[in-house]
Specification:
It contains 29 helices and 11 strands. With 803 residues, it is α+β, with helices and mostly antiparallel strands.
C-alpha cells in the first residue's frame, strides 16, 4: 500500500492539472446527472418478520388504496365554521382541485355526510384525507407541492392550510446550507491557526467541498435504485465535511513539516501521501468497516444509512490521496504565502512544547490521570441507564414547516393521537359474509312494519278513503321508520358486518388508550379488511407503545381466537415501535461485531494484543459517555431549549446504533494517528514511557485541531430543524470532544504508561501467523533510502573512471 500511495502522490503532484481537471470534470458530471434525476428519498420501515411489515404486505396485495395511508390536508377557519356556505364552497373547490391533481386516487370532503369523521365538533377544523397511488419512496418534492397547491381555493377563502403525512414530510425537509456554512467557517478559522497561511488553509476546504458534492451526487443516484432514508444526505454531509477536512489536515501538516526539514517539494508531497496518507487510508478503512458492519443488523433502513455514510468516507479518502496531492503540486512553494499571524508567534516558526509538558505530567502521575479520566466518563455515561429507544415525532419539527402545522391543527381538532393512527390489517380464512342474525332481525322488523302499514290502510278505508289514499297515508306515517330500516338493511347486507369482524372491532374499541376505531374496509373479494385505530396519546408516547403491545399480545389474539382470522397491527407508528424493538435486540450483537472487526484491524496494524483491547475499552467508554449526554439532553429535556426544541423528545431508535458505528470508526482515526507515532518512537529507542510522551507531543496539536474541526462541523448541524439531525449533531460532537480530550490526552497516555512494554506484547505464534502491515510504510522508505544512498555512493566512483 505504501508504494502505491507514494507513486500515486508523486503522479498527482507532477500531473497536477490533469488530476485536478479530472476531478472537477467528474464532480460537475455527477452533479449534473444527479440534478437531472432528482431527489427520491424514502423512510421505508420494512422489517421482515414484524407485524407492521406483514400488515403493509397484506394491504399492498389486497387493499392497495390503503397501503400507502392517507395524508391529511388540514383546514382551519379563524371565524365561522367550515360548513358556512362560503367556506363550504371553498372546501368543495379544493376537493375538486385535488381530484384533478396527478397521482391523487381518493379524497373525502369533510363538510359532507361521508366526511363527518374528518370534521371537528365545533366545525372550525377539518382535514381532507388524500390518498395517492405513490408511496413515500416514489413521491417527488414537485408532486408533493402539487397536492398542497391544490388547496389554493381554501387559502383564498382565508383558511389556514397545511398538509401532513408523508406529503408533508417531503415538503418539510430542513435545509443544511446554514449548518454547512457555519461548519466550514469554523474549520477555516481553526485551519488558519493550525497552518498560519491562507493558502494551506484553503486546501482541506477545497478537497472536502468537492468530495462532499461528489458524495451527495452519488447518494442521489443510489436513491433511484433503492430506498434511501431522508436523513442520509444530511448524515453524509456531516461525516463528509468532518473527515474530508481532517484527512487533508493530516497530510498537509506532514507535507509542511517535511518542507521545513528541507525535503524537495514533489518528494515531500509523495511521501506525505504515502505516510500520513497511509494512516488516512487505514483510518478511513476502519470507519468504512464499522459503518458497513451495520449490514449484519438485518434492518434495511439502518443498512442503507450505514453504506451511504460510508460513501462519504470513501470519497474523502480518495480526495485526500489524489486531489490533495495535485493541489499541493499546483500550489508548490506558494503554500507558504499569505501568512496569517493569529497569535504571538507563527505556527511555522516554532515547535509547540505544551503537549510535551502535558504528556510528561500525565506520565509522571498515570494512576491519578487514569482515575480522573474514568470518573469523568462515568459521570457523563450515568444517564445512559435510563436510555429508551423511541420514534420520530413530527411534533418536534419547526413550527414553520407544513408537517408541524398540520400536526398542531390535527391535535387541536381531533386529539394528538390522530397524528399517528394504527392500521389493523386482517386476513380472513373464509370470505366475509353479512351477519345473518342482523338480517333476520331486520326482516322481522320489516314484517312488523308491513303489518303496521296494513293496519293504517284498513283504518283509512274504514274512514272512507280510497285504497290509494289509504296506502299513501300509511307510507307517510311510517316514512322515517321505513327509511331508517332501509339504511339498517343496507348496512346489514355489507360483508363488513361479519360477526368475526364486529367482535374484533368491539374488543379494540374497549381497549384502554383507544380513542376510536373505524368500521372495517374490505377488499372486493371479502378476504381482507383493515381498521383505523386512533389512540388517545401522541405517536411518540410510551403509552402508545404500551397500547400497541397490548393490542398485539392480548386484545387481538383473544378476539380472533377460535376464528379463521389473522390480524396484524401496522401503520407508521407501529412500524417505528417495531424498529425500536429490533434495534434494541440487535444493539449488543452489533457492538460486538464492530468491536471485533476493529480489534482485528488494529491487531494487524500494531502487532499487539493489548493495544487493540485497550482501544476497544476506551472507545466503548467514550461512546457510553456520549450516549449519556444525548439521553440527558433529549430524553430528559435538560437544555433542549438552547438547541431549538420546546421540550424533551424521544431518542430515535436508529440514532444510537448509527452513532456507535460512526464514533467507533472516527475515534479509531485518532487512535491510529496517536499510536502510530508512539509505536514508531518505541521502535527507535525501546523506551515505552518516552514513546508515550514523544507520540503525544508529536500529534497533540494536529489531533486537537482535527477534533476541534469535527466538533464544530457536527455542532453546526444542531441548528438544523430536523430533531433527528439535532440528536446526531449533539451526540457526535460530544463524543469527538470527549475522545480527543479525556480519552486521547488523559486515559490513553496514562494507560500506555502503566502498561509499559506489555502494551506492545504479542504471542510469538500469533506474530508468525499474521501478515506484516505498515501503516506509514517505515520499512518501505528505509529500504528505499538505503538503496538511494548506495546508488549515490557508487555514482562518484563511476565518474572517476576515465572514458
Amino acid at each position: 500500500m505504501t508504494g502505491l500511495l507514494y507513486h500515486l502522490g508523486r503522479f498527482s503532484a507532477r500531473r497536477h492539472w490533469l488530476v485536478i481537471a479530472t476531478w472537477v470534470g467528474c464532480v460537475v458530471a455527477l452533479a449534473a446527472v444527479s440534478h437531472a434525476v432528482g431527489e427520491k428519498t424514502s423512510d421505508n420501515l420494512n422489517l421482515p418478520g414484524t407485524d407492521s411489515t406483514r400488515a403493509t404486505d397484506l394491504m399492498g396485495k389486497r387493499l392497495p388504496a390503503q397501503a400507502n395511508g392517507s395524508n391529511p390536508l388540514t383546514l382551519k377557519v379563524d371565524s365561522g365554521k367550515l360548513t358556512d356556505s362560503k367556506n363550504e364552497k371553498a372546501v368543495e373547490q379544493t376537493v375538486t382541485a385535488l381530484k384533478h391533481t396527478p397521482h391523487v386516487i381518493s379524497v373525502v370532503d369533510p363538510t359532507t355526510k361521508e366526511g363527518a369523521p374528518f370534521l371537528s365538533k365545533d366545525k372550525t377544523i377539518g382535514y381532507i384525507p388524500v390518498a395517492l397511488d405513490l408511496g413515500q419512496g416514489d413521491l417527488t418534492t414537485e408532486q408533493a407541492q402539487a397536492v398542497l397547491d391544490a388547496a389554493q381555493p381554501a387559502r383564498d377563502a382565508g383558511m389556514q392550510v397545511a398538509v401532513g403525512g408523508y406529503v408533508g414530510k417531503t415538503l418539510s425537509k430542513p435545509s443544511t446550507h446554514v449548518s454547512e456554512a457555519i461548519g466550514l467557517g469554523a474549520a477555516m478559522i481553526i485551519l488558519l491557526f493550525a497552518f498560519g497561511t491562507a493558502t494551506a488553509m484553503a486546501l482541506p476546504i477545497a478537497t472536502a467541498v468537492l468530495g462532499l458534492v461528489s458524495t451527495l451526487a452519488v447518494i442521489r443516484l443510489v436513491e433511484q435504485v433503492t430506498d434511501v432514508p431522508s436523513v442520509s444526505p444530511t448524515l453524509a454531509t456531516m461525516i463528509g465535511l468532518g473527515v474530508g477536512i481532517d484527512y487533508a489536515l493530516f497530510i498537509v501538516t506532514r507535507h509542511k513539516l517535511q518542507l521545513r526539514e528541507g525535503m524537495e517539494m514533489r518528494e515531500s508531497i509523495a511521501r506525505a501521501t504515502a505516510t500520513a496518507g497511509g494512516a488516512v487510508v487505514f483510518a478511513g478503512g476502519t470507519v468504512v468497516i464499522a459503518l458497513c458492519s451495520l449490514f449484519f443488523a438485518g434492518i434495511p433502513l439502518v443498512t442503507t444509512l450505514g453504506y451511504t455514510a460510508a460513501v462519504a468516507v470513501v470519497v474523502a479518502v480518495l480526495a485526500a490521496t489524489t486531489l490533495l496531492p495535485a493541489l499541493l503540486g499546483a500550489l508548490g512553494p506558494r503554500i507558504h504565502s499569505l501568512r496569517v499571524k493569529l497569535g504571538r508567534t507563527h505556527p511555522d516558526d516554532h515547535q509547540p512544547h505544551g503537549w510535551a509538558r502535558w504528556a510528561r505530567g500525565v506520565a509522571a502521575r498515570p494512576w491519578r490521570s487514569m482515575v480522573a479520566g474514568l470518573v469523568v466518563l462515568a459521570v457523563l455515561a450515568f444517564p445512559v441507564l435510563q436510555l429508551h429507544l423511541g420514534q420520530n415525532d413530527t411534533g418536534a419539527m419547526p413550527g414553520s414547516t407544513t408537517a408541524r402545522q398540520a400536526y398542531d391543527t390535527v391535535t387541536e381538532g381531533f386529539g394528538v393521537g390522530a397524528n399517528g393512527p394504527m392500521l389493523v390489517a386482517v386476513k380472513l380464512g373464509t370470505k366475509a359474509k353479512p351477519d345473518q342474525k342482523n338480517l333476520d332481525a331486520i326482516s322481522k322488523q320489516e314484517q312488523d312494519l308491513k303489518a303496521k302499514q296494513d293496519e293504517i290502510v284498513q283504518q283509512g278505508l274504514a274512514l272512507g278513503l280510497t285504497q290509494q289514499q289509504a296506502q299513501q297515508q300509511a307510507q307517510q306515517q311510517t316514512k322515517s321508520q321505513s327509511d331508517q330500516l332501509a339504511r339498517q338493511k343496507q348496512q346489514a347486507q355489507s360483508p363488513a358486518t361479519d360477526p368475526r369482524l364486529s367482535t374484533l372491532q368491539k374488543d379494540i374499541e374497549k381497549t384502554d388508550g383507544v380513542k376510536s376505531v373505524s368500521p372495517p374496509t374490505l377488499d372486493k373479494a371479502g378476504n381482507a379488511a383493515v381498521y383505523t385505530v386512533v389512540p388517545k396519546t401522541a405517536p411518540s408516547s410510551r403509552s402508545t407503545e404500551d397500547l400497541v403491545g397490548n393490542l398485539r399480545d392480548t386484545v387481538v389474539p383473544n378476539a380472533v381466537q377460535g376464528t379463521d382470522l389473522t390480524a396484524y397491527v401496522g401503520g407508521q407508528t407501529a412500524a417505528y415501535i417495531d424498529l425500536a424493538q429490533r434495534i434494541s435486540d440487535k444493539l449488543p450483537s452489533m457492538i460486538a461485531i464492530v468491536v471485533g472487526l476493529s480489534f482485528i484491524v488494529l491487531l494487524l496494524a500494531f502487532r499487539s494484543v493489548v493495544v487493540p483491547a485497550k482501544a476497544a475499552v476506551m472507545n466503548l467508554l467514550s461512546v457510553a459517555a456520549a450516549y449519556g449526554v444525548v439521553t440527558l439532553v433529549f430524553q430528559e429535556g435538560h437544555g433542549v431549549t438552547a438547541i431549538g426544541l420546546s421540550g424533551a423528545i424521544p431518542i430515535v431508535s436508529f440514532v444510537p446504533l448509527l452513532m456507535f458505528a460512526i464514533l467507533f470508526g472516527l475515534s479509531m482515526d485518532y487512535e491510529v494517528f496517536l499510536l502510530t507515532q508512539m509505536q514508531e518512537h518505541y521502535g527507535e529507542h525501546r523506551r515505552p514511557v518516552r514513546a508515550v510522551i514523544d507520540g503525544l507531543a508529536d500529534t497533540g496539536r494536529v489531533i486537537t485541531s482535527a477534533a476541534l474541526i469535527m466538533v464544530c462541523v457536527f455542532t453546526s448541524f444542531v441548528v438544523n430543524g430536523d430533531p433527528i439531525v439535532k440528536e446526531f449533531g449533539v451526540g457526535l460532537a460530544v463524543a469527538i470532544a470527549i475522545d480527543a480530550t479525556v480519552v486521547r490526552c488523559l486515559l490513553v497516555p496514562a494507560v500506555m504508561t502503566l502498561l509499559g512494554r506489555a502494551a506492545w506484547w504479542m504471542p510469538a505464534w500469533l506474530d508468525r501467523l499474521l501478515p506484516r502491515v505498515s501503516i506509514e510504510g517505515k520499512g518501505y522508505f528505509a529500504t528505499r533510502d538505503a538503496a538511494a544512498a548506495a546508488e549515490a555512493d557508487r555514482t562518484p566512483e563511476r565518474e572517476e573512471v576515465p572514458a
